[in-house]
């Protein structure tokens, strides 16, 4: 892929990043879960600085992306969480994914991260194979836990009164 470029995303790239987010959600059988908009990505990534994004560009088109953000581990210190990492299907197996991943690793090192972490679905064999080849450590004793927005709202409503009584 001689005509490909790996670089930090700009606001203008968020439309292409959103296309990749939708493609990844479809691959993960969760298309209905995507509610983020291009405007959300611009605001959260460039105004609020909540995340950073590295893109793979080929002939002017965004064909891959890695979106990550800092976290803090009470045991280890500074951590980077890789939220999403995807290369569009037609551009897989040309090394773009490895180049994107390598850039995230370099950014984690520059940040002084003690750990780079992410989640992978247990049935995503191509991703698991890629990660296994680079020697990752899998956490088998932990569950990924979450509350959806509606659950957060319900929980907050039922608990906020108890805190101040």
Protein model, in words:
The protein is α+β, with helices and mostly antiparallel strands and about 160 residues long. The protein has a single domain, classed as Aminopeptidase. Helix content is about 40%, strand content about 25%. The chain is built from 5 helices and 5 strands. It has helices spanning about 15-25, 40-45, 95-110, 125-135, 150-165, and strands spanning about 5-10, 50-60, 60-75, 75-85, 115. The chain has a 5-stranded mixed β-sheet, sandwiched between helices. Helix 3 (about 95-110) links the parallel strand 4 (about 75-85) and strand 5. Helix 1 packs across helix 2. It starts with a strand and ends with a helix. About 15% of the residues are buried. The model has no long low-confidence stretch (mean pLDDT about 95).
